[in-house]
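## Example pair
The file below holds two records. Each record gives the amino-acid sequence first, followed by its structure token line.
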Amino acid sequence: MAEEKKRTRRANGESAIYLGKDGRWHARVPMGYKDDGSPYRRHLTRPTRKELVDEVRRLEKQRDQGSARQPGKPWTVAKWLEHWVENIAKPVVSENTYDGYEVAVRVHLVPGIGRHRIDRLEPEHLESLYRRMQSAGSKAGTAHQAHRTARTALGEAVRRGHAAKNAAALAKPPRMEEDENEVEPYSVDEVQRLLLEVNKRRNSARWMLALALGLRQGETLGLRWSDVDLDNEYLKLRRNRLRPKYEHGCGEAAPCGRKAGYCPARVQVRRETKNTKSRAGRRAVPLPGPLVVMLRSHWEAQARERATAGNLWTDSEYVFTKPLGGPLSPNTDYHDWKRLLEDAGVRDGRLHDARHTAGTVLMLLGVPDRVIDQIMGWEPGGAARMRARYLHVTDPMLKEAARKIERAIWGAPENPAVDKDQDNEA
């Protein structure tokens, strides 16, 4: 009898299946160990043995693949997202990336799907949230940001065994309208009108770095004089200016009643700059002759401002500063760009559109792709995708292609004078 019991004993890791007194089939599936080292088993019950065996095999497969839910109380979506954004994402991503995650979690995801258990969240729950967001007036791009955040956060939950599937990876975000991200770069005529207006303003070289070389806002505002070599006519891009973030400094005893950014005793809690994260972003950029002249003039003007301000001047080594020194605020810089467009009589556009303009001009001038990638700061692996996004085929380029086709097929004689007139009209 003892030998028979020994033969029927289950091997380690084998599930127990039995018929219960309630008439249902039950199973105990070994899933590993709890945090305290004690064995952890999942209890399953089904009305028939076949149904139970199928479920046991599915759960054993998840266990063996490492995708089964771990022991302990299941996370709600809200608790997991809040834990993920503060304790997992924040220490390893940039400040700007964290800001995007935090807003998506706090404003959209937690109120919209936070009450669901993370292991019971379905793609349809997310798709319903995206529809509600759009009905409330959010753009498709905002829903896409929430979708990307959820996909990243839930992907980490799956890797850690808190959920068996990533519902956001299965969900379909709303369709982005083609014209929502459509960018029309500024024409050469518009750039020249901006140049005329820029020459009347303080920090004039700041805008030409964007329009001529495509520097990003953070790259330009983070530029220091030690990065600029006017004798050899190039500059080095090594860091990005970050958006300031403030906390109250007034104290709970006498609160000012304002937002932290407007508190009279506000305290900045974010560093001013961060190093460029990619190798392609850390690059040397050639300076055209007129820009060298503008930067020399800017250096002299800044020296005069420093001498006039005296003790009121804030030393910072930044190329572009406030009237009394210190780094420019990205928010102030944005509003300066909007006023520049208005004063120059140029159509409204994003500050980032200047980067699209610079890339398109480089292509129009026939600059080789590799050089464009260097100037724009694009990684080799994704450069082709970025060129497709930033380099726009303009009407003059299309007309020139049509003239070449005409000459090749119909043998039309070349007429440089006519071509020049047509280019001027374009």
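Second record, same layout:
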Amino acid sequence: MLFAAWAVAAIVLVVALVPVHYHEIGILAGGADLWVYRDGGWRALHGMPIYGVPVVLGLLYTYTPFSTLVFVPLQAIPGGVVTELWMGVNVLVLVACIALAWRLAGYRLSPRLLAVSFAMGLGCTFLEPVRTTLFYGQINLWLMLAVLWDVSRGRNSRLAGIGIGLAAAVKLTPLYFVAYYLVLRRWRAAAVATGTFAATIALAWAVLPGESHRYWTRTFFDSNRIADDEHPSNQSLRGMIAHLTGGPGPIWVWLLGSAVVVAGSMALVFALERRGERLLGVTLAGLTAAVVSPFSWSHHWVWLVPLTVVLVERALVRGRWWWGVLGVFAVAGAWPFHWGDGPIVVGLFLYPPSWPTAWLHVNVYLWLYIAVVAAVAGRLVRERRRARVASATAVPSDARQPVAESRDPEPRSDPAPEPEPAP
């Protein structure tokens, strides 16, 4: 019943706080990015220019040449229903992401777990990154699904790496997970991901030689093709620097900060992997990819969905973790703000910059990331200290099982305790 109530509450908030057909922001009044994808596929199909000129709605196409080939099948969907159909499919992809997250947490898929995943999927529609992804018709959930599927492959799987390579071939950010595989010493998976990515470049170059040349020699290096660094929707480290300083900061500051963030987060990912906490590890890597990316729109932060699964799993054992779930929704919920006679905006980072809390709310996802990293690092340090104390006091040492081997490597058959039955 808990998950059913969560789903109902989220849907009510999504449709009640902002009228569904409200101009330019109602959940059923969007689809702009989907139409850009569709137009990119149409241009690739008809030999039209893709980069350097506005496409549909006067927007620029910013994804790879290979992505246009992926979007060609969208031409088969009638324009009158493509937006609604894509949104429905995106919700199902969201549910699949949650189910895979539970699988990575060590749970076997079952009808009950799928029902819980469906209810949680509806519940997560009120997360701003998810709501905005659905509104624009974005592909973030598809990319996250590809990464989660890829990571869920066994260490000896020959398929591991393909999902990440294909995801990065559409949108470059998932390429970060090649570094994730390298840190975990999964050399073959990293090589397969890199090889898959390179193969897609070669394929697109063969089919679209002119546009591929333009993208990889000019468009790719044009950092202003997306938006200015100080745009409030830029929820990346580079955006945070611009928000706090009032303009683009020196590139070396961003690069140095990114190097520190990557090194620290990857150390945590490695430690979590050794402990068997793969879901938390890949979630932290996904959040970090959004942090160090040169420009991260708020909807890139769909990795808050598997983070929610992590928190819910802990809350089912210790109720105090529900405060963590509520905290995520409090700071990352799709809370609207009406600018007087102006438009309605969704998301705390778009709240008035004149408020004294502007330095806080305009960087809300970065502060949330810092809190997550601090919590994970603090827990690992405390557990290491307890392990050292236990090791020093236990006698004899060969009569106990090492801490590193005490975790049951076999996946659990059902959540323990089991979630409330889903509707």
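Notes on the second record: The longest helix spans residues 364-393. DSSP finds 18 helices and two strands in the chain.
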